[in-house]
Amino acid sequence: MLQSPHSSQVAAVPAQRVPARDRDQDAPWHTEAVCRRDEAGLFFAPSKEPTAARLSREEAAKRVCGGCPVMVECREHALLQPEPYGVWGGLTAAERRVVLARRRRRDVELKKATRPADHIAAAG
Ligand code: SF4
């Protein structure tokens, strides 16, 4: 099981910004996560967080993600799990739900578009 890059349980080594071409392809993506030490608590909501505070915290988290060398990998991980809480890969949980809904609609449309023979067979 993949450990959250936000977790304080991971090694306390600050992430390095490494160009993709120079990365160790065998290393797990989260070893390069900029948020490995989320000391400011930006990525997950505390209980009973007021809306204005949540929006501000999420924007701050997204700014961190914007400078993260593994943002794409992190985002795809969060979408595939799917991760139900927190900011991952620059997206909030609500934004990830929108992306997943779009992907599901796209997949349905692609299936329809690539199976015209079914319609012909059913009609004939
Ligand atoms: S993209 Fe954001 S949430 Fe994901 S590892 Fe990087 S800093 Fe953390």
UniProtKB/TrEMBL annotation:
Main location: cytoplasm
Binding positions ([4Fe-4S] cluster): C35, C65, C68, C74
PROSITE patterns attached to this UniProt entry: 4FE4S_WBL
The organism's place on the tree of life at top rank: Bacteria
Residue ranges, annotated region (Disordered): 1-28
Positions with biased composition (Basic and acidic residues): 19-28
Subcellular localization, as worded in the UniProt entry: Cytoplasm
PTM summary: Upon Fe-S cluster removal intramolecular disulfide bonds are formed.
The protein's required cofactors: [4Fe-4S] cluster
Keywords of the record: 4Fe-4S, Cytoplasm, Disulfide bond, DNA-binding, Iron, Iron-sulfur, Metal-binding, Transcription, Transcription regulation
Residue ranges of domain 4Fe-4S Wbl-type in the record: 34-98
Segments of skewed composition (Low complexity): 7-18
Cofactor note: Binds 1 [4Fe-4S] cluster per subunit. Following nitrosylation of the [4Fe-4S] cluster binds 1 [4Fe-8(NO)] cluster per subunit.
Function: Acts as a transcriptional regulator. Probably redox-responsive. The apo- but not holo-form probably binds DNA.
Protein family according to the UniProt entry: Belongs to the WhiB family.
Protein name per the record: Transcriptional regulator WhiB
Annotated organism of origin: Streptomyces galilaeus
